[in-house]
Amino acid sequence: MKSSDGSHDHMIGQLSDQQMELLLRDFFAIEVPAVLPTARQPAVQLRRDPVDHSVRVSRSAISVRSGRLTAALALAALGLCAVLLNQDAERVAAMAARVNQPAATTDSMLVSPQGATKGGRVPVGADGLLLQETEQIEVHPQR
Amino acid sequence: MTSSEPAGSGLLARNEEIAHFYRENARELWAIFYSMCSDPERAHDAVQEAFARLYDHHGEPVRDLRAWLLRVGQNWLRDVARRKSSSCSLLPGLDEFTGAAVDPRQSAELHERQLQIRAALAELNEDDRKVLVMKYSMDWSAAQIGTVMNSSAAAIDMRLSRARRRLAEILVEQGYQHEEF
Do B59 and B28 sit in the same domain of this protein? Predict the structure, then answer.
């Protein structure tokens, strides 16, 4: 026996529409989860915010720390440069002083103290050795 | 949800928004997934899976949240169905064991009846199954079902009547006798 108008009193095979109604209500009362629990958030998701926060805090701390370290290093480098420059300046000054220092008068000289004599002969030394100054030295190849 | 900025309070607000959407829509999504797989546990898993992926989604903003969740849940159900043949399944009824004192015979009969109706529902076409699930699992009116299925209330009433009739026929063919419960 088939129902065509969907009335509750009609029989559908061995099951009336009324029975089907009850059957489906009973069925879904068991089938449907009574209370759908709250959505499962992935574990990573639950931890993400605190981790992000701590990472942000530690990053800023690191950046402050690294800033201070950089400044200290820069100051140390500047100090070192100043010390080295100072040492160099002292060394240069000492060398300049040494260069400018006049030669000791007691040392013997092999050149005339009168300077250029234009071909003249000048005795040098106590033994009467003559020194002839010349303008140029001529070099002749040997055969 | 038009934007998703996963940072600090923005992330917390987004999670709250998702939790709210879950409370409002999880049952409907369950019903739709159930009408696809005829398995309450799997439908529930599909809902959970869809929302878990939404929590992890930080790409393009989701324009239509409901449609996005439905698509994710459907794809997940398809994947599970594909893997089903090569994987072992839980023992039927194991999850229902709560340790409470129940009459084993009554429990077995109830379980048998549920399986039989589930099998009959699985024989229906998807639209018929969907209207029955929405009507009886969520107690929706024909008008409400009509808005979801893009149909008029009158057409939904007709479809409901036809689906009940078809289900009764299938149950009779399967040897179901209502005196059993």
Answer: yes
CB B136 within 8 A of CB B27: no
Residue B60, amino acid? E
| CATH code of B60's domain | 1.10.1740.10
**Per-residue pLDDT tens digits for B87-118:** 544 444 444 545 555 678 888 888 888 899 99
Is B111 found in the same domain as B146? yes
Residue B29: CA count within 13 A, CB half-sphere:
28
Task: For residue B154, give the CATH number of its domain.
Answer: 1.10.10.10
Looking from the CA of A127 toward its CB, the CA atoms found within 13 Å total 5
Residues 6+ positions from B63 with CB-CB distance below 8 Å: B2
| ipTM score for this prediction | 0.72
Nearest CA in chain B to A24: B136
With an 8 Å Cβ cutoff, is A91 touching chain B?
no
